[in-house]
Design brief:
- The protein is built from seven helices and two strands.
- The protein is globular, with a radius of gyration of 18 Å.
Amino acid sequence: MADPGPERMWTERGPEEKAAETLAGFPERFAWVLDDLRALSTGRAAVAEGWGLRPELVAPLVDSVRRMVVLVPTEEFRRHQLRTLPRAGALDVAVRDPARAQAHRIARDRLVAEDAVRGARRLGVPVMEVDGSRGAAGAAALVAEQFAPWPGAPERAGRG
């Protein structure tokens, strides 16, 4: 399939079409992630993060969905990222209508995140909203608490 080009990809396709295309591509990319994780395998629990680690792809591989968590940004935190992170605040492609392209990307990302939350809840996977108030260490501590009952779980943040 030929590359559709930035105009078609970001301004002509609506957010729903882009979200569906993104979601359809996750299974193939997930196979690549699994290859990477297998190469890092140490026999201990690992924390893997990324928007392509979809609940429906990960759940069949763990012994309990309680050993998973889906992190999703609140709408306020999403707006904060758009204001403060250069990579989030503007689409880095040349298109005739950059505002439309950025709006499509933001809407696509929101739809993909909402899909992850729906999938997680359907499977009984815990969902944690990230609002930025805890910082990285605080968010890590919440995730560590989620995994604390299992041997080999990551250490809680703050422990030496």
